[in-house]
Amino acid sequence: MELHRREFVALVIGSATLAAERAQARVQAQADPLASWSEGPAKEAILKFVRATTDPASPNFLPPDERIAAFDQDGTLWVEQPLYTQAVFCLDRVPALVEARPELKDRKPFSVVLSGDREAIAKLNIHQLFEILLEAQSGMTVETFSAEVRRWLATAKHPRWNRLYTELVYQPMIELLALLRANGFNNFIATGGSASFVREYSAQVYDIPPQRVSGSAQAIHFGHGKDGASILSREPKFVLDNLEAGKIENFWLMYGQRPKLAFGNSSGDDQQMLEYVNATSGAHLAAAVLHDDATREYAYGPATGLPDSNVGTFNQDMYDMALKQGWLIVSMKRDWKRIFAFEG
Amino acid sequence: MELHRREFVALVIGSATLAAERAQARVQAQADPLASWSEGPAKEAILKFVRATTDPASPNFLPPDERIAAFDQDGTLWVEQPLYTQAVFCLDRVPALVEARPELKDRKPFSVVLSGDREAIAKLNIHQLFEILLEAQSGMTVETFSAEVRRWLATAKHPRWNRLYTELVYQPMIELLALLRANGFNNFIATGGSASFVREYSAQVYDIPPQRVSGSAQAIHFGHGKDGASILSREPKFVLDNLEAGKIENFWLMYGQRPKLAFGNSSGDDQQMLEYVNATSGAHLAAAVLHDDATREYAYGPATGLPDSNVGTFNQDMYDMALKQGWLIVSMKRDWKRIFAFEG
Question: Which chain A residues are closer than 8 Å to B255 by Cβ?
Fold first, then answer.
């Protein structure tokens, strides 16, 4: 039974005779569930979608088991500039990695990382980052990896805000996740990065349990430790690659369901997922976050009239598709009153 | 929010002031939750495990998010003799498959199936069955496949009982799933077969939603149909192979968690999962179902003193490991008062 504490409380304080829909309506009515969203078409479209899919009288009503919502992480739920958080984690591991395996020292892209040349490091492409990732996240048990991620997250800070990365989640999206959850949706993460990285904080930060985090995945190997006990360890090989169309292909492979709502921001791994969500004849909401606020966050990608970014580009092709297919485009500048919880 | 109707009802009829633990205790107290289990060590061990893991005062208490239970399907939740149900589904598709692709006609194992020689068909090994499976479950959209599985399940009947396969689930295991669910456990299926097959009935039959069914998985391909709309189709290639250690390796890959309870019955794909569950220092229950009741179901496998079965063997090596490591061995003959719901 996946019952989160806050949902449980919301349920048991209700009178014994309340029907599910009335209980949900009450949760929603308590306050503005999207307080960090500016009034306008984006907020309206979301509220309209939630009402339509949860009102049994609506032609777009979805039974609870079909309320599947999928969220990209980097650039959609939290900051992805100047580099993906998981990439920073992997880069931080390179010196120790090279010490253990000196043969990597003169090999690109490891040599680039060791050079300390920030500009060159920032230009590593996604395939080079994945090459580093494979080495930096292998050769240890699954438990050791979990502990390493947690230890890093507890101390590493973002250079611009000097805050923990887990503080750099977008408050409007946290509110959206909560609104959906309160209305019977199952929220999932569909990341281009490693599911095993995100799972270390998804429950705490997004209220999404590990089993609902999909992402790229390395092979896991069953074996035995020195004491003879069975262990699972991580191998330097991808089994699931969530880039490009891989994200929606693997979402189906893992969960066997089509999301009815999806949020993304990148042509590199969200475009096909959003296109697929949009191809349903029934109720659906495909939405893309546009990074157009250099003052409060970042502005990047051709869709903003700015040049291509090495990270999370929202290119013109995806922008054209979004307009043609009628996706919801969320402008951070226009639609988000507040970006981070720490803004107060 | 994964809230099943029966749990919801159980919750909202409770007084507004009940704590979660008391509400759960009430559900349990209503009747014997394991009515189809004979009194004895197996039933006692299960009830003891549930009490210990849900009592906050117990040293073996597990917080709800760690209550992860994994169940093999064939031979553990439903009948697997004389052939895996999914294999029967695939064999039934071979004539149409060969008509569409005549080049398969003279190729083994397809030619064996077309020969109609029941004895030879029964001797096909798991790799030959997987070869048939790959062809029989490919080249169509995910929706078409779902519809085909559902249509077949609605009419195909088991030769011995002349009942739908979905009626051949073990009532004691259905009660166990319900008991665990009522006590805050998340039940998962970990099958050697295709997750996409089991997902078509898992919610209805086991109250386990599709996203909690893991299994062998074929590649899914994103593309576009004739009308230009994006589609997902099935490819004749395995991405996840859940045989042998693959079952527990892929369970971790998909969900990032170690089951605390697991039930299986076969040396072919459950042994490593049970061994891994047993390797936890904390609370755990590794259990294996022994098919030793030829009168009411089947008796097979060296562990029963009978010869090797082509399907779901419980061999001597696994039996020795079970005894050495202290797994719970469930004898169908001794521990199950009733096997099927239709026995009345």
Answer: 210-211
